[in-house]
Every structure is written in structure tokens, then in C-alpha cells.
Amino acid sequence: MAEETTENAEQTTATPQAPAERQEVVAPKERRQRARASKALKTKAGAARTAEERHADRLTTRAKKAKERRLGRVKAKAKATHEGSAATPPRERAPGTQKIRQGVVVSDKADKTITVRIDTARRHRRYEKIVRTSRTIHAHDETNDAHIGDTVAVREARPLSRTKRWRLVEVVQRAK
């Protein structure tokens, strides 16, 4: 019986079913280098390219991509002008003229200064929902004419203090 087991063991070791080929273990960095080398050999039928040839290829691909970008910009511009024709055009003003804004006075406690809330409503670019925002500014009111709740017009001015950059133009509507 002992002889049979030794014979079976010898048969299994003597006749391997599939000889396992020993694969070479290669580091990832080495694998990448070999892949690049084989790719370089495939180009130009195995001949190495010169720096001038590589530069010329790079210039042609860059020119091709630039042409695609230009076409894309032209299409986007045409689309924007087509869609923007229905929208109201932006307010334009001559360079050097001061901005004029209209808002509501929320505080007149400081001497010769009013705090004005300017409300803006605009359409969101993507969602096209009306988004309402407000900001407060400090404006110079020389005669202490405006009071809380008044609707006033203010214009841009040189810096008058750390926070004041606007002047009162007129009181458009008095608070009731």
C-alpha cells in the first residue's frame, strides 16, 4: 500500500498538467518605460524621430486644436447674440461718468450720512429664476435731508470716509 501512494505521488509530480511559465515581475515604472519604448518604435516604422519632427507634429496638433476652439467660440457668440436679442441690453454709460443708483434709506442716525439699501433683481443664468439681492451703502447727505424710508438717488463719489463712497443726489420720494 505504501508503494502505491509513492507511485501516485511520483506520477503527479512527473507529469504536470500545465507547466506554469515563470512570468517576469516588472515594477510599474519599468512597465511604463517599456510601453513608451515600444510605442516609439512603432512610430515612423521603428526609426527614432528627431526633435524637429516632434516639434512640427506638435505645432500641427496645436493649430488644429486652435481652429476647433475658434469655431466653438464663433458658434457660442452667435448663439449668445441670437438668444440675447430678446433680453434687455445692459445700461451703458460713458467712461468717467459716475454711477447713479436708487435705493431706500434704512438709517439716518449718523450726522451727514445715510445708509441706503439698493435692491437688485436679475435672472439667474442657468436656472432663469429671478434672484433678488440687496446691498447697503453709506452716502453723504450734507443737509441731513433724507430720513428713514425715503427713496433716494445717490451717485458715486471719491472716498469721503472709510465707508462712504457715495453722495446724495436727490430725494425721489418721501416716506409716508
Question: What keywords describe this structure?
Answer:
176 residues, OB fold (Dihydrolipoamide Acetyltransferase, E2P), alpha+beta, 5 strands, 2 domains
Structure description:
With 176 residues, this protein is of the alpha+beta class. The mean pLDDT is 85. The chain has two domains: 28-84, no CATH class; 100-173, OB fold (Dihydrolipoamide Acetyltransferase, E2P). The chain is 35% helix and 26% strand.
Tally the helices: what do you get?
3
Q: The CATH topology of the largest domain, please? A: OB fold (Dihydrolipoamide Acetyltransferase, E2P)
Q: Report the radius of gyration as a whole number of Å.
A: 39 Å
User: Could you tell me the number of beta strands?
Assistant: 5
Whole-Å distance between the termini?
Answer: 118 Å
Spatial order of the strands forming the largest sheet: 1-2-3-5-4
The whole-number mean of residue pLDDT values reads: 85
Helical proportion? 25-40%
**CATH homolog superfamily of the largest domain:** Nucleic acid-binding proteins
Brief summary:
The protein is of the alpha+beta class and 176 residues long.
List the helices and strands and how they pair.
Blueprint: H1 2-14, H2 28-42, H3 51-84, E1 100-107, E2 113-123, E3 130-140, E4 151-156, E5 164-173
Parallel strand pairs: 3-5
Antiparallel strand pairs: 1-2, 1-4, 2-3, 4-5
